[in-house]
Design a protein that fits this description.
alpha/beta, six-stranded antiparallel β-barrel, 15 helices, Fucose_isomerase, five-stranded parallel beta sheet, carbohydrate metabolism, Fucose isomerase, Fucose_isomerase_N/cen_sf, isomerase
Length: 535
């Protein structure tokens, strides 16, 4: 058993399950740990790594849950512990050890868009919040800035870090018009009385403990899970004909969507991969119809990733009201004139939000197409003569085409990165158009459902800046340049309890604050505790 030494913190790092991702991302983790070591050294502290580089694997990440459990057995439970994350990580690799750890815990992320380190850290903090584990959280570009150093010193002195939450207020519907309150209450009552079926194609994607809503909590909303297997989805794909797949693809091509096809399936998107995705799209709708699902989530990145092309193009199509028509075996059109809201990576918190938003927006006369994004990165940029912090909201492909200026004509499909998606498949890629948005996140804290909600806008950046940001992150993925009203970067990082953020446009003359308040009131009427964030 390792014993605690004065001014020594232990370090662990959780990684991906996929060896190719861990090997490629390992140099970035080494750079981060080196900078972190220097920062601590200047404050009179040292780091002791609790696990070593594995020569055979080619990296030093914790890459399985059982590996993490064994490593934590050798760490003094009362020792100060740093979890350093520069990549996407599976939270369950370290969750068991962190739940039983008794010493102060600090999650540290590097402010870099190259790999989803910020995304991974936010997933871990959201998971720890759900698990009721006390922790502190910090982030930095180079680990030399005053914000990071001062708060790191606080953690070393006290075992805790305090952040600014002045942007957060408990939502009070008292200032709303009576008619809007009644609309929200009536909407919530219809959900609870009528019930909603949530189709879940395998839970627990990529260690996202924070994304699993316990049945007892979700039932209170009037939402009930239909647990489906991805093997069922694969089997249903095998029953879809080539002609049916071609019909979906032809529809997209006629709408002007572009596909970056090549001949090398290992590194390029092929037409065959796209047609396989079209079969998945048809199969998903047929299974949703068979089981009466009102919303679905496909896990894909565990299980299906070893069998078929990516689900991301499918997810983007499902989230769009205007989409290729699909028919059952008897010729009946399925979900005509509607989206089938899809929650990426089986994030059930996003699934609740996506369903509520889609149908509430339609009742308000708005376009309900919505999506989740990763909070991937962000930098300052001058927008309309004013310097703003502009987030890079980025997701692997579930964005509806209606979020792009020219719809499908503004959309393209590029092959998913081979290190994550060995079977290929394309995204539904584009740049989100400028406009007002409502953003939100449902999460679990102290065994209760909460939602943080606010307003903002998607802004237009010069093409070269968009390309630069894509190059810094993943150029294959759809992007939104997001500015949040009244919420600074560090406030958002400190308070947001998830790797995902939900966004929906509020178009036309409809006042964006009013839309956010009606949504907040509807969620509150369902029994979710709501914070209004920002202005």
């Amino acid at each position: 058993m390792t014993t605690t030494n004065n001014n020594q913190a232990y370090l662990v790092c959780s990684g991906d399950l996929r060896p190719s991702a861990n090997i490629k991302c390992w140099p970035m983790q080494q750079q981060m740990e080196e900078k972190l070591h220097i920062a601590l050294q200047k404050l009179g502290w040292t780091i002791k790594r609790a696990h070593t580089y594995d020569e055979e694997k080619g990296h030093g990440f914790i890459d399985y849950q059982h590996v993490g459990i064994k490593i934590f057995r050798e760490i003094d439970k009362k020792a100060p512990l740093i979890v350093a994350e520069s990549v996407w990580q599976y939270s369950h690799h370290v969750l068991a050890g962190l739940i039983s750890h008794e010493g102060p815990i600090l999650i540290v992320a590097n402010w870099d868009g190259t790999y989803p380190g910020l995304v991974g850290a936010l997933n871990l903090t959201g998971s720890l919040t759900k698990a009721d584990v006390q922790y502190s959280f910090l982030w930095s570009k180079d680990f030399t800035d005053d914000f990071f150093i001062n708060k790191l010193q606080d953690w070393l002195n006290t075992g805790a870090v305090e952040h600014d939450y002045t942007h957060v207020k408990a939502f009070e519907p008292t200032s709303m018009k009576a008619t809007d309150r009644e609309l929200a209450a009536g909407f919530a009552k219809r959900i609870q009385d009528g019930k909603v079926v949530m189709g879940v194609f395998d839970e627990g994607c990529m260690g996202m403990f924070n994304a699993i809503v316990p049945d007892a909590l979700i039932h209170q909303l009037g939402i009930f899970k239909e647990r489906l297997s991805q093997s069922t989805l694969y089997a249903k794909m095998l029953t879809v004909s080539d002609e049916e797949a071609h019909a979906v693809l032809d529809w997209l091509l006629k709408k002007g969507m572009k596909f970056s096809w090549g001949a090398d399936p290992v590194n390029e998107l092929t037409k065959e991969q796209t047609l396989e995705q079209c079969k998945m799209y048809i199969a998903a709708l047929r299974l949703a119809d068979e089981f009466g699902c009102d919303t679905i989530g496909i896990q894909y990145q565990q299980g299906l990733k070893d069998l078929v092309a990516a689900s991301d193009l499918v997810e983007g199509l499902l989230n769009n009201t205007e989409r290729p028509p699909v028919y059952d075996e008897k010729g009946k059109e399925l979900y005509p004139g509607e989206a089938l809201p899809h929650f990426n990576e089986v994030d059930e918190c996003a699934g609740i939000d996506g369903y509520v938003t889609y149908h509430l927006w339609r009742q308000l006369g708005l376009n309900g197409d919505n999506t989740l994004h990763d909070l991937r990165y962000g930098e300052n940029f001058v927008v309309d003569g004013k310097e703003e912090f502009v987030w890079v909201f980025l997701i692997s492909g579930a964005v509806p085409a209606s979020h792009f200026a020219n719809g499908y004509a503004g959309a393209s499909s590029m092959r998913q990165p081979p290190m994550f998606f060995k079977k290929g498949g394309g995204t539904l890629r584009g740049v989100s158009r400028p406009g007002n948005i409502v953003w939100s996140r449902i999460y679990i804290e102290q065994d209760e459902l909460w939602c943080d909600i606010g307003t903002g806008r998607a802004v237009e950046l010069p093409k070269e800046e968009t390309e630069r940001r894509w190059a810094l992150t993943d150029p294959q993925w759809p992007i939104m340049h997001g500015v949040l009203d009244g919420v600074r970067r560090d406030q958002m990082m400190a308070k947001h309890k998830a790797n995902h953020i939900q966004v929906a446009y509020v178009d036309g003359d409809f006042e964006v604050r009013r839309a956010a308040e009606i949504k907040a009131a509807a969620l509150q009427a369902l029994g979710i505790k709501v914070n209004f964030c920002g202005i």
